[in-house]
Design a protein that fits this description.
about 100 residues; mainly alpha; about 70% helix; Arc Repressor Mutant, subunit A
């Protein structure tokens, strides 16, 4: 997890997220450096717009849990409508977990 935090910190500071910079941040934090994890993270983030992914993650987290449907829909109809939203949230969360390991 410290590697993800290092990448987020580098992104926030406007620095390039590369192996050397991630290694420096992790070492400066006093954690043990695992070269293979750093290489894997940097390879996973290659070509990814971190700002866009963070914005998407914020939108998923800020979405209401289960707003009631308008128009007097029955309970069965409400559940049918909620399921696709939950699947979309799960798919977005799975994408982020793959991104940040």
């Amino acid at each position: 997890m410290e590697y993800v935090y290092a990448a987020l910190l580098l992104h926030k500071l406007g620095k390039e997220v590369n192996e050397e910079n991630v290694k420096s941040v992790v070492a400066a934090a006093g954690a043990e450096v695992d070269e293979s994890k750093i290489k894997s993270l940097v390879a996973s983030l290659n070509g990814v717009d971190i700002a866009k992914e963070l914005e998407s993650a914020s939108l998923v987290a800020a979405a209401p849990a289960g707003a009631p449907a308008e128009g007097g829909a029955s309970g069965a109809e409400e559940k049918k409508e909620e399921k696709p939203k939950e699947e979309k949230k799960e798919a977005a969360a799975e994408g982020l977990s793959a991104l940040f390991g």
